[in-house]
Amino acid sequence: MKTTSELERKLREHLLLAPRPGGDRLMLDDAVLRAALDGSRPLTAGERAVLRASPLTTRRLRTLALAARAVDAASTGATAANDAWHGSSGMLRAADSGAALVQLATDDGFWRLHFVEGGEPRVILQLMPDAPFAARLLRESAPLRVLDGAGAQLLAGRLDLDGECEAAWPFAQAPAAHFQRHGATFSVQPAILTE
Predict the structure, then answer these.
(1) DSSP 8-state code for residue 178
(2) Does residue 148 contact residue 176 with C-beta atoms inside 8 Å?
(3) pTM
């Protein structure tokens, strides 16, 4: 037995695929529809009314949603499926408040850099456990390196069982000042270590 929501979904899909009524035309631009899909700009009440009244516009919204879903699946699903990882990058995003820099994260959210002050300053690279390639990197004890925006190496080594790699901070400047002077970016990359 089909549930009400299944029937409603099938009815909506049938209406979307039905021939368009005479005079129907695309009422909203693709840019407006894409912004609504990615959540960067919600549709206004008038735009929602236009969307409900125009099967062609609704069909275009569905096409854009399916295309976006396919792109997402290709970029994230493929990475998760084959454990491929070729590097991550991040940026120093906060303005200099004078406070010590405590942590930075890569744009993909898979890595964090922690900065420990006091005594000998240290930098710790941390792999997030939900990264699709985490199990493989931990199992293989893969060599990694972290570079600043100018290409200077901050850290190189292998992850421990906790998914971390630690080293002394290699520069005279504090981390915040160093990143600001060297492009305000960093990258985590696979490395070839000579031991």
Answers:
(1) H
(2) no
(3) 0.55
What is the C-alpha separation between 155 and 165, in angstroms, rounded?
8
Domain boundaries, given as residue ranges, for the chain: 4-82, 88-190
3-state secondary structure 109-166: CCEEEEEECCCCCEEEEEECCCCCCHHHHHHHCCEEEEEECCCCEEEEEECCCCCEEE
Give the torsion sign (CA, 64, 70, 73, 78): negative
Residues making up the chain, counted from first to last: 195
pLDDT digits (tens, 9 = 90+) for 51-88: 888 888 888 888 888 777 777 666 555 444 446 788 88
Radius of gyration (C-alpha) of the chain in whole angstroms: 24
- 3-class secondary structure, 40: coil
- Asked if 28 contacts 51 with a C-beta cutoff of 8 angstroms, the reply is yes
Strand 111-116's sheet: what is its strand order? 103-105, 111-116, 122-127, 164-168
Do the Cβ atoms of 145 and 101 come closer than 8 Å? Answer: no
- The phi and psi torsions of 177 (rounded to 5 degrees) equal -65, -40
Give tens-digit pLDDT for 120-156.
889 999 999 989 999 888 888 888 999 888 888 999 9
Q: Is residue 102 within 8 Å of residue 115, measured between CB atoms?
A: yes
Residue 65 half-sphere exposure toward CB, CA atoms < 13 A: 10
Distances (CA, A) of 63 to 21, 76, 84, 178: 18, 20, 29, 47
